Amino acid sequence: MRSVYIFGDYIFETSPDTLSRGVQIIPAPSKQLSLLRVLLQGEGNAVKKETLLREAWPGSDDVEDHTLVQTIYLLRLTLGKMPDGREYVETVPRYGYRIAASISQQGLASPESNPWKRPSRGSGFVHSLGQIWRRFSSSSRAAL
């Protein structure tokens, strides 16, 4: 099942992991997105460093803490700061990290039920406007 997490100005969608702010998709490396997914699944609670390493780098037993710290740093740069000046990703000393913003989550059964998905060509409001414009244009030309 796909999930959508809303935190601050951001929307994070799983399967595939996608981060957006409003209608703009934010490009981010897959490790940052994997790390963000694990943090969001923590629902604002602190997530242990060991859990983050295991989930974001599955099957890699030789990943060091420095790699996690560097990826968190890059994720913070990607997200920027919250309106109150705090970081979205907060360090919990001697434990791990957490998302500092409030998080709401919605499960999606299929891509068609995604409320943030743009309508496909041939459907929706934009398609209807296109049909009206074509009818108007052709009737205007016929009247000339």
UniProtKB/TrEMBL annotation:
Gene3D superfamilies: Winged helix-like DNA-binding domain superfamily/Winged helix DNA-binding domain (1.10.10.10)
InterPro entries: OmpR/PhoB-type_DNA-bd, Sig_transdc_resp-reg_C-effctor, WH-like_DNA-bd_sf
UniProt entry keywords in alphabetical sequence: DNA-binding
SMART domains according to UniProt: Trans_reg_C
UniProt cross-references to Pfam families, sorted A to Z: Trans_reg_C
Limits of the OmpR/PhoB-type domain: 2-101
Gene Ontology BP term (one): phosphorelay signal transduction system
Keyword presence, NAD: no
Name this polypeptide is given: OmpR/PhoB-type domain-containing protein
